[in-house]
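Dear Dr. L.,

I hope this message finds you well. Following up on our conversation about the binding site, I have prepared a predicted three-dimensional model of the protein together with zinc ion. For your records, I am including the exact sequence and ligand specification that went into the calculation, followed by the C-alpha cells. Please feel free to forward this to your student if that is useful.
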Amino acid sequence: MKNECYIVRDLLPSYIDELCSEESAKFIEQHIGTCEKCSQLLHQMRLEFDTQEQTEIPARLEQKKPFQKIAHFFNAQKSFTKFFSISFWVTFIVTLGFFIYSLNVLSNLNDEREDAQVVEQQKQDIMEKTFAILSSQESINETALQAVFDQYNGQLQHLAVFATKNIDDLARLQKGPTNTFPIDYSQALLIIGEKGKILETIVPNDYDIGTVAMANDQWIVQFEYKESYLKTIENAHQIKYYAPTNWTIFQLPIVFTIITAFILGGLLFQKRITKPMKNILD
Ligand SMILES: [Zn+2]
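The resulting structure of the complex is given below.
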C-alpha cells in the first residue's frame, strides 16, 4: 500500500458524504482510477452506507408510532360515532313509530270516550225526565212516560216503575242511575214498551250492565237496553272503568324519547370533544 492510499482512505468517508473539497475529490478519483484496492474499498463502503440507510427506515417509522396510535384512536372514535349515529336513527324511527301508533290509539279512545259520554248523558236524561213526570202528579202519568220512552225507542227495551217500599237495595239506587241486576218485574206498578203498556210477564235479561235503576223516596224506575244497543253500552262501560290513561298510552313513546335523547346527547358530546383534538392534529 502506497502512502497515497492512507490519505485516500482517510478521506473516503467524507468523499462518500460529498463533504470534501473539489481538489480532494479529484485527487481521490484519480487515485481510485489507478489503485484497485482503494477502488474496491470505496465500493464496499458505498454498499455499507446503503444498507445503513435502509436500516434507518424502520427506525424512522418507529418514531412515527405515536401518531399512528392517535390515528387508531380516531378510527375507533369514528366507528363509535358511526355506531352512535345508527343507534340514534334506529331509536328515532322506533320512537316516531310508537308516537304515531299511540296518537292513533288516543284518537280511537277519544271517540269511544265521546260515545261513552253520550250513553252516560242519556242514562241521566231518561231518569231525570221520568222522575220529573212521576213527581209532578199523585198518580203515574202513563202517556207522559210513554212519550219519554218513545224518545229513546232505539235504545230502550222497556221502562218500569216500582213503589220504593218493595225494594231492599234502596240506598244504592238513590245515589243516581246505576247499573243493577234487574228487579223482579212482577212487582212493577207499570211497564212501558214499544207498543205501550206491557201487561204480560217480562223475563228480565239478568244482565247488570244492560239494566239501569234509580230511586227516590217514593219511586223506583228501571229500564233495560235493547239487545241491539248492548254493544254500545258494554263499550261505554269498558271505557268508564277500564280505559287506559293517556300516560299508559304514551308510556312507550316517552321511554323511547328519553333513550333517543340520551343517544343524541352522547353523540353530540363525543363530537364536541373529538373535534378540537382533530383540529389540532390536522
Ligand atoms: Zn490506494
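In brief: The chain has three domains: 3-58, 73-109+245-281, 119-234.

With kind regards,
A. P.
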